[in-house]
Structures are given as C-alpha cells and as structure tokens.
Amino acid sequence: MTHDEITLLQLEALADRLGIQVRDENINLDDISSSGGLCLVEGSYILILNSKTTVQEKIQVAIGALRQFDLNDVYVKPAIRALLEGR
Fold it and tell me: I want to staple 45 with a disulfide (CB 3.0 to 4.6 A). Which of 20, 21, 36, 81 is the partner?
C-alpha cells in the first residue's frame, strides 16, 4: 500500500468518525469533469469520491470537504492535521 493510499484511508476514517458517509462512485457525466465533493442529503453528509480519479485527487477532495468541519475537539493524526491545515 502506498503512502497516498494510507493517507486516503486515514481521511476516510476521519470522515466516518464525523458521521460522514464516504462513497467511491463512478461519476461519468457528459461534458462534466468532477473529482467529487461533499453533499448534504436529508440532513446527512456524504463525501463522494470519483472512482475514476487518482488517489491524490481523492485526497484533495477529502481534504477540501473535511476542512469545513470543526476538528478542534477531534483527535486527528498529526500528519493528517497538517494536511487539513495546509502545512
């Protein structure tokens, strides 16, 4: 398993601890290019990652989504917190 794959798994685990469902979906829409994103459906957050994108692109989508949440009272591994804080 690569470093990026481990990072993605840790971001997905953090999302799960925050109550965010993570889905790896094939986003195949004509004329639309999307790596995925955070959705709010019937009061529940869902993080959709495009299964056709690279692991690094999925990491960037997950970081962008997780930055929207208050993580001050949540344990986050230092390396993941550094990514989320842009360090």
Answer: 20
Burial of residue 64 (number of CB atoms within 10 Å: 0-12, 13-18, 19+): middle
Classified as helix, coil or strand, 80 is helix
Q: Which residues of the chain have pLDDT under 70?
A: 29-32
Distance CA 6, CA 16 (A): 15
* 3 state DSSP class of 43: coil
Alpha carbon distance 5, 58 (integer Å): 10
The string of pLDDT tens digits covering residues 35-48 is: 899 999 999 999 99
| 3-state class (DSSP) for residue 38 | strand
Question: Which tokens go with 51?
Answer: 């299964």
Q: What are residue 3's DSSP bridge partners?
A: none
